[in-house]
């Protein structure tokens, strides 16, 4: 098979149609009526070409819970979702808190071959929040770790957070914080947004303030240390206000929002369905509106899936006992189109910014998030902007089925994904 | 009536009245020498309790046995998670033994709702976490109607730890459904989150001031303060709670003459309720216990008895 591909007539970032010639892993030509000799031709009239997506926040469950997801199946789900790179969170078993563990994740990603799997390193040993993990060794390893996170838990000790922020400056790292003050929202018990619905349902609440106090503290620590902090999965209007203020002050802070926090609200909990149990929890509609607005105006830098696969039985407990998390990789684009593009809040350049360019920059991934230009790596996602998709959880390539979108109709679908010029997905199907 | 009793929301006003009418007949059985009706003969009911309970389990057990059901008590203490088995697997295993009804208590809110979605047999919620305890609400309202007659326009005060109380959550729904005006009283730390909007939507009042509420109350329902809350920072000391929110001897004088005093038990005498209040002539605490069996008989009868059993009950 030819190693050249000609994508014919795609709208580049939603703009004018053009041909894209992919060869030797890079974009070899960009223009109209390019010579297709020797190339596989992909007819792309009506499709939108975007730089390949980068997910700052993926849980791949390997090692430890290969029954829920593996690096291979998670990579496949990512490719189907239009991703060319994902950052694999550290809260596996064992935790990714050493150079060896990080390199193992990297190698399994290479072996899978669907997306670049970039390991995230733990901030503290075994995610316990007390002693720094070997941040420098992970950074200097073959995995070249740049993003560190205790995700699932908060680096709640201010002294430890300060030291982590200071330490990662040596190698241009960033601390991605799971903002949850456990004294206000205890791990394990606080299971849904604290408000009228939690009050009526008798569920232990997770108040927005538990996130906001950590975000506020961390931006001040970032200012104090002159370091870079990233806020994972912001979920409240208050957090957004803090980040907006911090950016106005020149503090080096970035943040991400999940697809589900852009659309789903606390109302989903009324049936006690653990599919909708996620951390941070789904918030009220006014928070959802604030998150959309902040993503549109650039206060929120990126959309990150927090893809959290779980085996079926891990969700078949009472709500408070069930596992946190929901799937996200395969549906993120559709949710962004439905919530941000169809509503006029974001154009296609904006979609590229929040799904590719910004996350690649935050993660320090040089090979991703490039503009679509000759010479750039051929990491490309082709999107059908008007496709109506009724999500079917059984059609997922993830090993898990905790899909909050099952049965819902969303707009926009990934048509094809190219990783360094090679199609990993074509017409929505894995290659 | 719906298939399951998971929440007071499952019941219409007519359902509640029907349950009360049947309960009144069942109540009479308690005074017979032979306390046995054939209504559920041949039926098997499992009391599946994931959480300790003496009075509720016993009450359901007696209710089932007086209706001639075979009642099996199963304790599944500790969360199913801690045992490594999912809740779904646990209840499917138990109910695969061919039972006709499941009475379930669980420490997690919503557990009964989830279980009902997995089973074809009627599920009766005997208390789910801090969510609901519908049969307790029914027995409380039934007790009050026997004391006060119709609850339409009657003012009922519910006082205590609202945040952690399933008795409150079911109670306020049941009482307002029957037309009562309800005021709930607690320190701010023990008010459920979002109660301002909730109370407005649901049509009940809130107060931090028990002394202001009691003089207009036609009945007062005291809630148990769970000991573990005292170390949770919800209030400074037991003494301060009693002074602020307890039904003390001096507060008894604020109540209308004969206003019933209810408490779901077990009582912390001297904390949320003074012995003088617990033992007052107007105390309905033991009536509640007795009514509990009648109400549970009524609920089991309505959910489990087929037409033939009904005929047998009425002697036709």
Secondary-structure map:
The complex is a heterodimer of chains A (431) and B (316).
Chain A lengths: L3 E9 L4 E7 L2 E6 L8 E4 L4 E4 L1 E6 L12 H10 L2 E6 L10 H14 L3 E4 L15 H6 L6 E2 L9 H11 L5 E4 L14 E2 L2 H6 L3 E2 L1 H18 L3 E3 L5 H12 L4 E5 L27 H13 L4 E2 L28 H10 L6 H16 L16 E11 L18 E11 L2 E5 L2 E2 L1
Parallel strand pairs in A: 1-4, 1-5, 6-7, 7-8, 9-10, 10-13, 11-12, 13-14, 14-15
Antiparallel strand pairs in A: 1-2, 2-3, 5-16, 16-17, 17-18, 18-19
Chain B lengths: L12 H17 L14 E6 L5 H12 L3 E6 L4 H4 L3 H9 L5 E6 L4 H6 L6 E6 L5 H15 L6 E5 L6 H12 L3 E5 L9 H8 L2 E3 L2 H4 L5 E4 L15 H8 L3 H4 L8 E2 L12 H4 L6 H20 L2 H7 L3
Parallel strand pairs in B: 1-2, 1-3, 3-4, 5-6, 5-8, 6-7, 8-9
Helix pairs in contact in B: 1-13, 2-13, 6-7, 6-13
In CATH's first tier, which class of the largest domain in chain A applies?
A: Alpha Beta
Shape of chain B: globular
Q: What is the number of helices of chain A?
A: 10
Task: State the major sheet of chain B.
Answer: 5 strands, parallel
How many beta-strand segments of chain B?
9
- The spatial strand order of the largest sheet of chain B comes to 7-6-5-8-9
GO molecular function (chain A): dihydroorotase activity
Organism (chain A): Nocardioides jiangxiensis
InterPro entries (chain A): DHOase, DHOase/Allantoinase_Hydrolase, DHOase_cat, Dihydroorotase_CS, Metal-dep_hydrolase_composite, Metal_Hydrolase
Protein name (chain A): Dihydroorotase
């Amino acid at each position: 098979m030819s190693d050249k591909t000609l994508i014919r007539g795609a709208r580049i970032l939603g703009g004018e149609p053009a041909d894209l010639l992919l060869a030797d892993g890079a974009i070899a030509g960009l223009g109209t009526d390019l010579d297709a000799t020797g190339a596989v031709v992909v007819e792309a009239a009506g499709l939108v070409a975007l730089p390949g997506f980068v997910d700052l926040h993926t849980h791949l469950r390997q090692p430890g819970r290969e029954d829920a997801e593996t690096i291979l199946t998670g990579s496949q789900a990512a490719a189907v979702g239009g991703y060319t790179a994902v950052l694999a969170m550290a809260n596996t078993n064992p935790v990714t808190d050493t150079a060896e563990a990080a390199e193992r994740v990297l190698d399994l990603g290479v072996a899978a071959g669907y997306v670049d799997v970039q390991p995230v390193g733990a901030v503290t040993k075994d995610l316990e929040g007390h002693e720094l993990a070997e941040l420098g060794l992970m950074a200097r390893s073959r995995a070249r770790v740049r993003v560190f996170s205790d995700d699932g838990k908060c680096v709640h000790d201010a002294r430890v957070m300060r030291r982590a922020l200071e330490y990662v400056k040596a190698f241009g790292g960033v601390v991605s914080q799971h903002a949850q003050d456990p004294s206000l929202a205890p791990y394990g018990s606080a299971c849904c947004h604290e408000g009228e619905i939690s009050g009526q349902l008798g569920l232990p609440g997770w108040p927005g303030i538990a996130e906001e106090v950590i975000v506020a503290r961390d931006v001040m620590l970032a200012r104090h240390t002159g370091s870079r902090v990233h806020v994972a999965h912001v979920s409240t209007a208050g957090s957004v206000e803090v980040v907006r203020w911090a950016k106005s002050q020149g503090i080096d802070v970035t943040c991400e929002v999940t697809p589900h926090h852009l659309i789903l609200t606390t109302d989903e909990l009324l049936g006690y369905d653990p599919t909708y149990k996620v951390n941070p929890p789904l918030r009220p509609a006014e928070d959802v509106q604030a998150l959309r607005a902040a993503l549109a105006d650039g206060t929120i830098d990126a959309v990150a899936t927090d893809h959290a696969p779980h085996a079926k039985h891990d969700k078949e407990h009472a709500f408070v006992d069930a596992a946190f998390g929901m799937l996200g990789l395969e549906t993120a684009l559709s949710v962004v189109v439905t919530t941000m593009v169809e509503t006029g809040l974001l154009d296609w350049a904006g979609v590229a910014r929040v799904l590719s360019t910004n996350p690649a920059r935050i993660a320090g991934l040089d090979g991703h998030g490039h503009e679509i230009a000759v010479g750039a790596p051929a990491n490309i996602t082709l999107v059908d902007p008007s496709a109506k998709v009724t999500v079917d959880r059984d059609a997922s390539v993830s090993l898990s089925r905790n899909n909050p979108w099952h049965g819902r109709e969303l707009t926009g679908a990934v048509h094809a994904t190219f990783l360094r010029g090679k199609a990993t997905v074509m017409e929505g199907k894995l290659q | 009536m719906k298939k399951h009793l998971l929440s007071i929301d499952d019941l219409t006003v007519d359902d509640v009245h029907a349950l009360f009418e049947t309960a009144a007949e069942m109540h009479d059985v308690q005074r017979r020498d032979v306390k046995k009706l054939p209504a559920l003969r041949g039926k098997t009911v499992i009391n599946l309790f994931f959480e300790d309970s003496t009075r509720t389990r016993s009450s359901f057990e007696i209710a089932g046995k007086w209706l001639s059901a075979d009642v099996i008590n199963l304790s599944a203490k500790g969360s199913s998670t801690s045992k490594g088995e999912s809740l779904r697997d646990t209840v499917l295993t138990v109910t695969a033994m061919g039972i006709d009804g499941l009475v379930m208590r669980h420490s997690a809110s919503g557990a009964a709702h989830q279980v009902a979605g997995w089973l074809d047999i009627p599920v009766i919620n005997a208390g789910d976490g801090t969510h609901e305890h519908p049969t307790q609400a029914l027995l409380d309202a039934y007790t009050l109607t026997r004391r006060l007659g119709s609850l339409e326009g009657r003012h009922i005060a519910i006082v205590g730890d609202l945040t952690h109380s399933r008795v409150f959550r079911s109670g306020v729904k049941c009482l307002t459904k029957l037309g009562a005006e309800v005021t709930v009283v607690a320190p701010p730390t023990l008010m459920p989150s979002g109660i301002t909007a909730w109370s407005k939507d649901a049509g009940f009042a809130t107060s931090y001031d028990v002394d202001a509420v009691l003089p207009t109350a036609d009945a007062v329902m005291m809630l148990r303060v769970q000991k573990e809350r005292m170390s949770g920072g919800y209030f400074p000391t037991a003494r301060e709670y009693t002074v602020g929110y307890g039904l003390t001897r001096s507060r008894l004088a604020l109540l209308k003459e004969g206003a019933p005093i209810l408490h779901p038990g077990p009582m912390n005498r001297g904390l949320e309720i003074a012995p003088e209040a617990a033992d007052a002539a107007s105390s309905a605490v033991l009536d509640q216990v007795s009514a509990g069996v009648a109400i549970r008989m009524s609920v089991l009868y309505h959910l489990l008895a087929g037409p033939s059993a009904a005929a047998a009950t009425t002697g036709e």
